[in-house]
Each structure stands twice: as structure tokens, then as C-alpha cells.
Amino acid sequence: MAVSTLNVQKCHGKNIEGWSMSITNLQAWLQEEGTVVLGISGTRKYVDSVTMKWLIAVLYFQAENPNAALSFYWEPLKKAVRVEGHVEKLSASESDEYFHSRPILSQIGAVVSEQSKPIVSRDVFIERRAMLLEQYGDGSEQLPRPKHWGGYLVVPEVIEFWQGQTDRLHDRIRFRRPKSGDEPDGVLLHQGDNGWVYERLSP
Predict the structure, then answer these.
(1) Catalytic residue among 82, 122, 168, 172
(2) Which residues pair with 191 in a beta bridge?
(3) pLDDT of res. 151
């Protein structure tokens, strides 16, 4: 899954807007409210798409721009789904629950790797991993979730389904929350379930 955001950076006290950022990230699960994505805060993945989805000054990026887009692509099927929406931070208990559901080596990997930060060599985190594996590897003691690791919920406003065609006349169906003044006419704009509307887009 790819996550894209709009970065708002400050240079000499002035905002420089328009930098589009995209990362590849783990999509943990889907739920009625939206899509849950998880990762390490304070890393390039999240600080770049912050400085915006995950926390150095705890949601610094949400104050700047609390929106994100998710892209799912299945090349063999020539199918894709794009989700646009606003981002909400998961509770600590929800992040804890998912973190501790992962294999212990994955938990340790999240602790020892300060993602995207330069390191002297691979030995740096290999040594850290060995120390933590000795202490927590048998499962008798629970490895604390690092504060920089957490999850976010992307609450969808737009969901687009794409089906590729060999003649390039791809199918694109977009579901979205209705805007003020929208009136489904059954021709261009159609009424969907649960208050959503949908329309066919040109490829």
C-alpha cells in the first residue's frame, strides 16, 4: 500500500507548500470507519510526509495537513483502489494490541530500527536485536511498544475503483461523500448506500 500526503515545510519562517510525498507502508486492517495504517513516528517515512503519519511532535503533520491518500494496486488483476480521507491517531491501547500481535522478531525490529536514519553499519541494529532477543525472546516478558511506533486511521471521503483495459479505456468508478448542492440525477451522479454518491470517470 502506498500512502501519499501533501507536505508543508517552513523555510526562513515562510511556508513552502505543494511538495507531494509518497511512501510504501503496511496496511494493517480495514474497519467500518476506515483503513488502519501503522508505522514508526519520527522517521523519514513519517517526518518527510509530516515536517508533516506518525509523530515527532505528536501529529505535527496533522496540524499542518491531516489528509492522506492510500493506493492499492494488483498488477496481475489490473485492478486498483484509491482512498482519500482525513487521518486520526489510534489510541495507545489499539496500537499496543496490534504491536503485540506481531511476531517477536517483528516487534524487536521495530524497536531497534530508527527507520531511515543513517547508521554506521548493519551491526548496529544486529547487536541491539541480539540484546532484546535474549531478554524478550522466550515470551515470558512483554516487549514494551516504543513510543515512536503507532497507528492511524484514514477515514475515507473518496474511494475510487480502477479496472485496467487493454484498449486503455479503463473503468473508473468513484464513490465519495456528497458535496453541498449535490443532487444525484441517476445519469452522471448516482445515489449509493449510507449517504455516499458515485459516478463514472473518464480514464
Answers:
(1) 168
(2) 197
(3) 80
Strand-pairing partners, residue 160, are: 82, 174
User: pLDDT tens across 27-65, in order?
Assistant: 454 555 555 555 544 433 333 333 223 332 233 445 467
Tally helices (H) and strands (E) across the chain.
5, 10
pLDDT at 36: 57
Q: What is the pLDDT of residue 123?
A: 93
Each residue's pLDDT tens digit, 59-103: 344 546 788 888 888 899 999 999 898 888 889 998 899 889 999
Distance of CA 11 to the CA centre of its chain: 26
Question: For residue 140, what are the contacts with CB-CB under 8 A and spacing of at least 6?
Answer: none
Residue type (1 letter), 21: M
Closest to 201 (Cα-Cα) out of 191, 190, 166, 192: 190
Is residue 145 flagged as an active site residue?
no
- List of domains in the chain: 2-100+147-163 (2.30.110.10), 102-144 (no CATH)
The DSSP line for 64-121 is: H--EEEEEEEEGGGTEEEEEEEEEEEPPHHHHHHHHTTS-HHHHHHHHH--TT---S-
Task: Record the cell numbers describing residue 13, joined without a space.
Answer: 519562517
pLDDT of residue 56: 29
d(CA 3, CA 37): 9
Please, which residues have CB within 8 angstroms of residue 168's CB and are 6 or more apart in sequence?
A: 203
Cβ-contact 177, 193 below 8 angstroms: no
